[in-house]
Amino acid sequence: MATTGVSVRKALATQEDLTGHREHCSAHPDRLAAIGRAVGQQVRVRRDGGELGLYTVSELRPQDADTTVRMGLTARRRLGTEAEFGATLDSQVPHPTMSAAEARDAGELIERLKDDGRRRTLIAVAPHGGDIERHTDQQAERVAARLAVSSWRCKGWAPDPPGASLRWHVTSADLSEGGFPLLARVISRGFAYAVSFHGFDDEPGILIGGTAPGTLKEEIREAVEGATGGEFPARVAGEDEHYGGDDPNNVVNRLTAGGANGIQIEQSLPARQAHWRAVADAVADVYARRLHPRDPDGDY
Q1: Is 7 helix (H, G, I), strand (E, B) or coil?
Q2: What is the pLDDT of residues 9-44, one digit of tens each?
Q3: Measuring CA to CA, which of 34, 79, 118, 290 is 20 to 30 A from 216?
Q4: Structural domain containing residue 168
Q5: DSSP character for 259?
C-alpha cells in the first residue's frame, strides 16, 4: 500500500459531478499514479488528525497542483469539516489481513471471497456488509452456503456504528476491482446469475432491480414478499429508477455473462432486521429451481 500527502480543496463550479456526489473526488494524475491508483478507482482519504473515508476518483485534474484533491461540500462533510484541509491519500481499500473481529474493533473494512476458481453458476454478493448495511453480508453468505455457490462480500465498521456507511460506502456502479483484489479474481468470470443484497432507507419495503429479465425479477419479488408474510411490500424497480440497479457498470451486472442477469435486492432496515434470513432463503429457493430444474417425474 502507498500513501502521499495532499491538500483537499473545494470543488470548482465546473465540477458538477463533485458538487453533486459525496463519494467522489478529483486528483492530479501524477499524484494518483504515484500511489498506484487511476481514475475510476477507490482511495482512502484521511484528514490530518481526523476522520477517514473511502472515495472514488471520478475526475483527473492535471491543471491543479499535484498535491490537490478536490471535493464537494457533502464529501468534505464526511470527514467532519466544511473547510479545506491537509490529508493523506492512501491506495489501500480493504484491509488485506485483518480478521472480522479485528476489523470490527478497529473500525476497518475487509473483503471476503468464497470461490473455487471454476464455478460459473451463481455468485451472491454484498458490497456493503458489516455495519454499512447490516445483515446483507449474512444474506449473501447464507445463499452461497445453501446452494454451494460463490460469494463476494465487503464488511465495514466504524467506532460509531451509524458512521460505517459514511466511512466505507461505495456506490455499486463505481466499485472498481482495481482496489478490491478478491473481486478482481471473479469480475470477468461471466457467471450465469448474480444476486446482490443491499439496504436502503427510501421506503419501508423491498425493491428488486438489476438487468435480469422481468420474469426472474417478478419471481424473486413474489418469493421475498411471501418470506416476510406480507409485512413488507416488495416491488420491481422501474426503468432507470434510483436504486434500480440496472446500470451496466453495477458490479452485480458486470459479474454476469453479457451483463444481462444481475439481480439487486434493496431492503429497508426493519425488513432486514426482522426477515434477513427468510428473505435469503426465499432467494436461494428461486435460484435452486433454476440451477436444479425438476425432471419429468417432478423431482429436483
Answers
A1: strand
A2: 999 999 999 999 999 999 999 999 999 999 999 999
A3: 118
A4: 100-291
A5: G
